[in-house]
Amino acid sequence: MDRNDIQQVRRFNRAFTKRIGVLDESYLARGRPFGEARVLFEIGLAGGIGLQALRERLGLDSGYLSRLMRSLEGQGMVELVRDEADARARLARLTETGQAEFEAYDRLSDDAAENLLGSLKDTHRPLLVAAMAEIERLLRTAAVAVALEPADSADARSCLEQYYAELARRFPSGFDPLAVNNFDPAEMTPPKGWFVVARVDSEPVGCGALKRLEDGVGEVKRVWTSPSARGLGVASRIMDRLEAQAVEAGFTILRLDTNGTLKEAQAMYAKRGYREIERYNDNPYAEHWFEKRI
Amino acid sequence: MDRNDIQQVRRFNRAFTKRIGVLDESYLARGRPFGEARVLFEIGLAGGIGLQALRERLGLDSGYLSRLMRSLEGQGMVELVRDEADARARLARLTETGQAEFEAYDRLSDDAAENLLGSLKDTHRPLLVAAMAEIERLLRTAAVAVALEPADSADARSCLEQYYAELARRFPSGFDPLAVNNFDPAEMTPPKGWFVVARVDSEPVGCGALKRLEDGVGEVKRVWTSPSARGLGVASRIMDRLEAQAVEAGFTILRLDTNGTLKEAQAMYAKRGYREIERYNDNPYAEHWFEKRI
DNA sequence: GAGTTTATCTGACTAATGTCAGATAATGGA
DNA sequence: TCCATTATCTGACATTAGTCAGATAAACTC
């Protein structure tokens, strides 16, 4: 690794941490200890959240969080309600006062950011914003992780639902999952099939499936990237993973179908070496069929 | 201010703080509380530092720092010595053990940076480094502040010394301040003259002087930028300040001289509208003379 | 339905951080 | 020389942060 690169990263860290310090101060500017402010802000960001998820996000001890919550409750900022689905768990959400307080923190953060931008010359400001967007994109790209996952896990289901909803929005004729899918998780479960989920910092941002069509032939299905993660190469990473899985499963041919509306998908398939072939299935939404030797 | 820009800055902060967290952990990785580690690291970075400066840099209470120092002293990491110049003050510096410990922290920070870089693809790494360099440059540019200061202050003297040392290095014939300067701070003191210092985060990074030559005519002298701050437009900012001062002092003409070796300076003067004129003084090192109506 | 696991809460701590009002000794002027 | 100022240290606290071992009740498993 280049020594100069490392030094540059460290110089950047130092320069930027100085500014971030200002941002941290906005957490303290309302006379509440940092821990409480963090919790309050996080609940507000999530718009209500289970205690366990909260604990995980902020890395807090359960006893500690319990006390923080009681303190915030005492201040009238949050209320804890039983989770309908699981009476052991509790959900935290902001009261009206809490919401107002959250918004005050939010404004402070905006002010800090605006202050930072305001200190720059007009000609420099767009340069800073662009460089920040670039770094954010690179860091998020590096954080993409694709892994096998049961097709009926909560995250898998949520990805598929978003995928179907998007198809319904984009297909001129709409999209009815039942018409084509009669989705059976068992079909995506080894050894008949596989399902992968892509995550950024444990947040699911995409999915894809591979299924056995016939001997030596697999089919790629349901490759989807969340709008929040487009431009990070998530779909490519998912395809990499599915193709590796296909090799391992002994397939020599991969097929897939797609609708004409999905231009980006077709471009990606072409780029990865998929060639258009004749219709091989009776999917009513499919308009193009592709194949690749692997 | 553009709302999207503000949101981009905040998204970047969030994304980056996640990574910085990793960096913070390297402070904790050696079983010492964060406060102590910070102090140890800062002393090491500065290579020895007065307690007061240390307190200011880290924003610590004097009592608190006193105790942190005693703890680090007890661990054999630092030693406190009386300041020769002021017997009330004390200077902290690392012992040999402390130096080794500092280097261990330094390595941990390097590792964290290397880790960050290592998580990127080879094609992305230079993009990240370049974007970071860009942001660092923009933030430092925005942090440049130029202000009048007595020409005999410690920072002013230190700038001038570095300026002379650089001239000595760059002039083919060397440079002897005494031959030309017989530097008298009084000459740079209102109303006969003015001296400005440029700072980045209170660190002096440049200087410049303005002096009365004759009625209505001022002379710009000793404009210098520290090598650590080149490319930030420091010299331009100094010139801005000096010209504003000249206007206030009622000058209508500004003159200056320079040596042929200092190409960057000549380019800047030309860009600011200075035109070459005949020799107007007997400075033995001067090879070009410039003038501008203001 | 008994035993195990899970989510949260409580009590009892410890360590770290932060604050403030003097105390002490050196410095800098008037 | 006297007095105000400055740099640091000490004592006495208060608050925050963090940990850990049960306790409790609901949920899950067999």
Quick take:
The structure is a homodimer of 294-residue chains. Chain A has helices at residues 3-28, 34-46, 51-58, 62-74, 96-118, 125-142, 154-170, 177-180, 234-248, 263-271; strands at 49-50, 78-83, 86-94, 144-148, 193-200, 203-214, 217-225, 253-258, 275-277, 288-293.
Task: Write structural notes for this entry.
2 copies of one chain form a homodimer. Chain A has 294 residues and is of the alpha+beta class. The first copy, chain A, folds into 2 domains: 3-119, Winged helix-like DNA-binding domain superfamily/Winged helix DNA-binding domain (Arc Repressor Mutant, subunit A, Orthogonal Bundle), CATH 1.10.10; 144-293, Aminopeptidase (3-Layer(aba) Sandwich), CATH 3.40.630.30. Helices cover 50% and strands 22% of the residues of chain A. Chain A is built from 10 helices and 10 strands. In chain A, the strands form 2 sheets. Chain A has a 7-stranded mixed β-sheet with strand order 4-5-6-7-8-10-9, with helices on both faces. A 3-stranded antiparallel β-sheet of chain A has the order 1-3-2. The two termini of chain A are 34 Å apart. Chain A binds chain B through residues 1, 5-6, 8-13, 15-20, 23, 109-110, 113-114, 116-121, 124-129, 131-136, 138-143, 201, and chain B through 1, 5-6, 8-13, 15-20, 23, 109-110, 113-114, 116-121, 124-129, 131-136, 138-143, 201. The structure holds a DNA duplex (30 and 30 nucleotides).
